[in-house]
Amino acid sequence: MSQLSAAGVVAPTIPGPDPDTRKPRLALPPGSCDTHAHIVGPQDKYPYDPNRRYTPPDALVPDYLKMLRTLGVERGVLVQPSVYMTDNTRLLDALRETTDFPLRGVAVVNDAIGDDELRSMHEAGVRGLRVNLRVSNGASADMAPQLARRIAPLGWHLQVRIDPKDFASARSLIETLPVDVVIDHIGGVPVRDGLDGPDFRVLLELVASGRCWVKLSAPMRMSEEEFPYRDVTPFVQALVAAAPDRMLWATDWPHTTITKRMPNDGDLCDLLADWIPDPAVRRRVLVDNPARLYGF
Asked: Which residues form the Amidohydrolase-related domain (predicted)?
C-alpha cells in the first residue's frame, strides 16, 4: 500500500524514467514527432484518482521537453494517463501552458462529456480520445460508436488499448467507425507466436485496410527480452512494410509500470535504425504521418 508523506502526498509505487537521456547516434529528421507520452504531477496540484492502479513519480513538462530536445524531436503528443481517469485537467493545462513547443493531446472521457467541452478540448490541442479496453478508466467499448460519431466532425480519432486476443472480435466494430483508429504499443501481440500468429495477422489486415494506425512504441512491454528487444524487431518491420503510411513512433515516456530494466530514451530512439532502415520511410513515420493525423 502507498505511504503518505508528511505533506500528504502519496509516495511513488513505480520508478521514474532515466533522467540522463543519452543523445542518440541516429539523427532524426526535422519535424519528428513523439506520438505517445504522459505528463503527471505535481501530485499536490493534480491529485491522482483514488482508484488508480499505481502511483507514479512526477513527470513534468520541462523534463519531457528536455528529453525530446536531446533526442532531436520537435513535436509531441500527450496522452491522458490512467491515474487521472477522466479528469483531463493536467493534460489540458500542459497543452495550454506550453507555447514554445508544438504539442497535441489525446483525452479520456465518458459519455457524459458535452459538445462544448469537446470543442474546448479541440481548441487546446486535443485531437483524439483514448479508449482503454484493458483497464476501466473511461469510455468502454460500447461507448466507442457514439463517441466516434460525435468526434468525427472535429477530425479526431479513437486511440485504443486492446488485448491482442480481442483484435478479431473488435475488427467489425473498428471497420464501421466513422473515424480512424490508433492501436497502442505495436499491438502488444505475443512474440512467441511469431509473425504468423493469429493476432498479428489480424493486426496486419487492420492496418492494410487504411483505417488503422499503429504506434511503434514501448517494445519492452511486448518483448520477452531485455533491451534491445530483438524479438520485437521483426514485428515492427512487418508492420512498416505492410502500411508505412499508417505507422507512428513514440517514446511512451515516462515508461510507467514496466517490469524490465528502465530504458534510456536515447537507446530507444536508436532502435529506429534497425526498425526502419530506409531514411525516406523513417521520415514518413516520424514526420509526415503524425503531421497528417494530429494536424501539426
From this structure: 33-296
